[in-house]
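@channel sequence for tomorrow's demo:
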Amino acid sequence: MKKLIFTQEAPAAIGPYSQAIEANGMIYTSGQLPIDPITGEMPEDVEEQAEQSLKNVFAILKEAGVDSSKVVKTTVFIKDMSDFPRINKVYERFFTESYPARSCVEVARLPKDALVEIEVVALR
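C-alpha cells (generated this afternoon):
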C-alpha cells in the first residue's frame, strides 16, 4: 500500500510529484530545495541552502512520525563540488553517529537555480 505524506511545514511540490510517499514501511522524500515554506524565498549562501533543504526534509519526516535515526540513505545534489566541505559541515548537525548511507552528486543545474537539493529514504 502506498501513502501520501504532505506537510505545510515544507514547500509544496513545484510539479506533478509528492513531498513524500510511504510504501512497505519505507518513506521516500522527493528532493527538497532550500525554499522557506513560509516566505517562498531561497537563501543565497550554500550553507544556508543546505540547512533549509534539511529542515524541509525533516519537516516531512516529522509529519510521517519519524526522526533522523530512521534515515537510512540520503542523496545530496550540489551545483559545485567545491562546496562539499561547507555542506558537510551543515549536514553533520542534522545527523549523529550511525550516519545514513549517502551519495553526493554534482549536477549541472537544479530547479530554481538552487545550489543544493536533498532527498532521503527512511524506515517507518
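heads up for whoever presents: The domain at 2-123 is CATH 3.30.1330.40 (60s Ribosomal Protein L30; Chain: A;).
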